[in-house]
Known about the structure:
Number of helices: 10
Number of domains: 1
CATH architecture: 3-Layer(aba) Sandwich
Strand order of the largest sheet: 2-1-3-4
Structural class: alpha/beta
Oligomer: single chain
Shape: globular
Strand content: 15-25%
CATH class: Alpha Beta
Amino acid sequence: MNTMQTPVQIEKNAAALFRPDGWNRLIRIGAVVPHADVGPESELQAMVTDEITIHGSRLYFSAMRAGGEMDEKIPHDPVAMFALPPYVDEAVESLAASPLDALCLAFTSSAYKHGPDGERALIERLRPRSRDIPIVSTCLSAERALVQLNTKRLAIINPPWFDADLDGLGADYFEQAGFRVVHHAPCGLQSGQKYITPQSLYNWIEKVVAKSNADTVFVAGNGQRSVGIIDAVEKTLGISMITSNQVILWDALRSINASVEIKGYGKLFR
């Protein structure tokens, strides 16, 4: 009796025996994130489908301490240093050595510091390090998202660990980019990632929208937990909502013309 298996039989048996190992994903997205901050990767991975994987590289200039703890208001020096050479340049080059399709810079406050022109200059500086992999960044992605959503009145809700100066720079950024900012302030919750919950953030947004008459709210800060309430805010409050991690995922997929359907995370993906 012939017990030899044909190549087709071997392939069928392998499919039954072996478990997925991640290499069958269609799209790989890299994210440069601050040291000790698990927020961006957690939120990005939560939003993506089985076709996408997220791969992070940490930049060791951050306002966070071991264990994810931070000061009540973060100092500005680490914020500015995120964008300075050679640190982010080396992080991008290292991450781009991987077989990636797109790269994200998951940092909001550094863009606030140097403005729209500075953020565009940063992307241009990093392009030679990226092996021609498309690079997106939080605030530039937010600009594109706001245009996509036809935003007329923007409310910006910054993390509670942003001080008044950093919050003001955020408003300046988007006004320079051509948007009308009708509200901007740090979120009025206890400072610290573990204190930002979906219910408490939703309640805060509801108050802000009622007072400001905004048609779009931007929950800023890649470390501020927020993507889980996008759908609820849009359905119940009748406005558009974007967040720092949502917009970089959307823009990364847009930059490579990916035909991937992301459900449950806002009208931006529709």
